Amino acid sequence: MTSFFKMCGLMSASFIASLVIMQPLQAASSFNSTSAVNFTLTNIVNLTNSGDLTSLDLTGAFSLDNNSTITSNAILLDYTSTSLSNPVAAGSSFGQSFGASGNVSNNNATAYFLAARDPQSILDPNLANLFLRNNSVTDSYQIDIALDYSLSANAGGDFANTDISLEYYSLNSVEFSGFDIAYASAFLSPYGETRSNSVLLSLILAPGAIEALYTDVTINGYIEASASPVPLPAAVWMFLSALMAIRLSMRRGSVPSPIMV
Amino acid sequence: MKLPTRFILIFGLLASPLSNAHGPLPPSLQGVPIPPVPGLVDGADPIVVNKNAAIALGKALFWDVNVGSDGMSCGSCHFHAGADRRTKNQLNPGQKSIHPGGQTFQSTASGAAGGPNYTLNVDDFPLHKYLDPVDGTSPLLFTSDDVVSSSGTFSGNFTGATRVAGVNDECSRNVDPVFHVNTVGTRRVEPRNTPTVINAVFNHRNFWDGRANNIFNGSNGWGERDPNAGVWVKMNSRSVEKQRLHLLNSSLASQAVGPPLSDVEMACSQRTFPDLGRKLLMRRPLENQKVHHEDSVLGALSRSSAGNLQPGLNTTYTALIRQAFNQKYWSYTRLGTFGQRPGQVAYNQMEANFAMFFGLAIQLYESTLVSDQAPIDTSARSPFDPSDGIENDFYPTDLTSTERRGLDLFLAFHCNICHAGPSLTSAAVTTNAMMLEANPDAFGPYSLVKPAGISRNIISHDTTVNGKKLMDFGFFNTGVGDPAADPGVGGVDDFGNPLSFTGQYLQYLTGNLPAVKDPGVTSVRSCNFIQAFATNSTLANAEIFTAVDGIINDPNGNQNCLRAGGDGAFIPTIAAATQELANPLTRKMDVSVKAAFKVPSLRNIELTGPYMHNGSMATLDQVIEFYSRGGNFVNNNLHLFIFPLDTLQVDPDSRAALIAFLKTFTDERVRYEKAPFDHPELVVPNGHSGDHLFVTGGNPLNANLASDEFITIPAIGATGSTQPLQSFDTYLAP
Question: In Å, how far from its chain's centre is CA B228?
Fold first, then answer.
C-alpha cells in the first residue's frame, strides 16, 4: 500500500510538474500570417497562326523584398516560390508561398514589416512576376491568366495584431488591379481571418507588345506580452492541496519522496 | 452712446417696416435635414464607405479616455446633456484677456479665495452681480474676469505612447505656473465655457469664436486657411499623394480635431495626430470602459450581456477604420513618405491620415445627436389662416398658458431674432436658410420672418448702440463680459488672419482678394443685410455708402432679396471702401466683432448650464435677469437689442413664464440619456484630493501633481437611465 501511495505521489508530482511546464509562468502573444499566390496560364492561343507559340516570351518569378525590416529574431519566415520560363504551355503555373509567424513572452515586444514584392517605386517590366513579350511582327496572341490567392491572418494571446495584404496590378491592363487584406487581432474574435479569390484576365498581345503583371504581398505584425504570470486554474490548486494532504498523511507513517514542482 | 439717443434708435427700429413684426417662431426640429456634406458618404468615390461603421468609430473615439494624454476624452467635458456640470476645479483666471489680470485668479462672489481646485457654490454666481439683479443701475456688488469652464489635462511635453496597455502618454510633466495649489500642480482649465455638442451639427461654425471652420481640410480646424493641410491618398501600389480636402458643412470635424491636441483640454504639447493614431490603432476601443449590451450604436460590438457589463469592444480601431473608410486612405503599404518621430518607426498611411478619420467619424456620430422630441417639437401648430390675421399663425398650441405667455415674451423682446430657427440660433446659417428656401413659411408667416435677416449670408449689416455695423451673422456682442476680457470672433487665427468673416469682407470690398480665406465671404449679398449698407442715393450719408461716395451694383445680384425690390443691392467702389477703411473714425466700414460670440442654441438649455461664453451665470433666472437689466457691459459693439426690458424688470411672473417657455426645448431623451444620447461608462476627473487651499500630491503621473478625484458615469443603454439629469445649479455646493 505504501508503495502504491509512493507511486501515486511520484505520478502526481510528475503530473504537477507537467502542468507547470504546460502552463507558462509568463504571458505570451503570437501571430501567424500566410499567403499563397499562384498564376496559371489557362489558355495560350496564336490568333494569327494557330498553334505557333514560338514568338511568345513568357517568364514568371517571385522574390522577397530585400528591403524588408525584421526587428526581432522571434519572427520566423517561410518563403518558397516556383518559376516559369519558355517554352510555356497552356496549363502552366507558378507561384509563391509566403508567411511569417512570431511568438513572444515575458515583456518582450516586436514589430516588423515584411514584403514580398518589387521594392522599386516605378514599374520595371524585368522585375514583374509575370512578364510577356510578343516578338512577332505579324502575329497576335490571346493569353488567359488566372491569379489565385489565399490570405490568412491569425493572432492570439495578450496582444497581437497582424495583417497580410495582396495588391495586384499591371503595366497596361487597367482591369487587372485590386487589393485585398486579411486582418487579425487578439482583441477581435474569432482571432483570425482568411480571404481568397480567383482573378481572371484575358490578354490580347499585339505584335511587338509587352505586358507585365505584378503582385505585392505585405505582412505587418506587432506582438507584445506582459510579464504578469498566468495563474493556474483553481482546480489545479485544489488538487495540489489535496495531494499535499495525502503526502502529509504518508509522512506520518513512511519515508516520503519529495514533490517535484 | 447716450441713453436718449439709444431709445430713439430702438424706437425707430421698432417702428420701421422691417421691424414692425415679431420675427421667426421657433419651428420643430423634426425632419430638419443635416446640412449636406458632398463627397462624404455619397458620390462616385465617397470618403466613407460604411456610415454605420463610421458612426460606431466616432462614438468609441468620443468616449474613449485613451484619446487623452492623461485620461481625458471628448466626453469628459461633454457628458451632461452634451455639456459639463462639474463644479470642482472648474475656474480659469480669464486667460483670453489682454490684461495681465487674466493670468491671476480672483476671489469668488461668495468671498472665497477661488482658484484651482475650488468647489463652486450657489453664492459664487453670477460672476457679475448687482444689488438688484434686474437693475443695472443698482450698485455693482461683485465682478470678476474669471471663467467657469472645464478642467482638462495636466499637460506636459509629449515623448511617446505605448501601442498596448496604458492610458497615459509618456510626457515630461511639471507643475503648471498658473494651475497649482501651493507647489502641487492641478489640471488646467479651459478659458471658455463648454458648449453642448447636441444639435451642434446645425452650426455653420463651432467654438464660441467660430474658429472651427465650416470647411474640413482633413488635418486641422482651419479649413482653407492652412496652405499645408491635406490628406494622403493612395494613387497606386507604389505612389501616394497629399491632396487638399475641402468638405463643406463639416465644422464638427474641424472642431473635433482641436481638443485632442490642446495642451489645456486633452493632450501633452507637441503630440500629433499620427502619434495619437499609433497609440490607438491596435487597441480595443474603450478597453477599460464598460459598454452596455444595449448601447444604441456599440451594443452589437460590446462584450457585455444582461447583468454582466464588460469593458471594451470586440474589435480594434484599425478594423473599424478599414470598414468605414475608403481604402485609398489607408491601404498604401509602403513606408517612408509620412514622416516619423526621431528614433521611432516611420508612420504608415493610416497613422498619417488619423486626423481625418478622427474628425469625420466624430462628425458622423455627433450628427446623430439631434434632440427633436421636445415639447416644442411635438406640439401641434395653429393653422395658417389669413382671415383672422397672420399674427396668430403657426403657434404651438400644446403649451400651457404660462409657456405660451413665455413664448409671447420671447417674441416681444426679440429673443427670436438671434435665437432663430429650429436649433434656436442664427449661427445655423445654412440650416435656417435651406428651410426658408424650401418653404418661406417654415418659421411662421414669411412677412413676419424677414426682419430677422435669415439668408445664406454669413455676414450682416445690423445696428449696435453705436450705429450700424457689419458683423458675422449669428455672432453678436451682448455685453456679457468686459470686451477686453475675451475678443471672441474678433480674434485672429494661427496665421494672423481675422477669425471673423466680416474682417475678410472688408478686404474683399477693398479688392484685396488674397486676404479672403473662407468660402462664402465673396458671395455675400448686400440686399439681404438687415440694415442697408449702401444705397443709390445722391445724398451724402454719415453711416452708409451712397452714390456720393461711389457705389457699384453688388455683383451677387438684386433678385429674391430680403430687402424689398432689391433695395440696398450695392457695395462701395474699391476706392470708396479703401478710403473709408483708412479712416480710423469710419462709420461706414465699422464692424462689430470684438467680444462677439456665437449665439448658443437654446435646445436643452435647462440642462446645459452654466451659461454664456464665460460660464458666469448658473441658472436660467440669472440669464433672464441679465437680459432684463440690459446686459453687463455697455460697449460700442453691443447689439441694439440688448437694453433694459421694463416688463421683465418689474414682473417676476413674466420672467418665470419666459423660463417656463425655455424649458419646452428640453428633450426627455436627453434628460434620461436615452438613445441616441446613451453612452459607455466614463470616469471623469473631478478636481483633486483636498481643496483650493491644500491638495495632496502623489499623482501616479508625477509626484508633484495632485491626486485626482473622479466621478463615474455609468454605462447607459438605449432605454436610458432611471435617474434624470439635473440642471447645473443642482450640483453646486449650497
Answer: 25
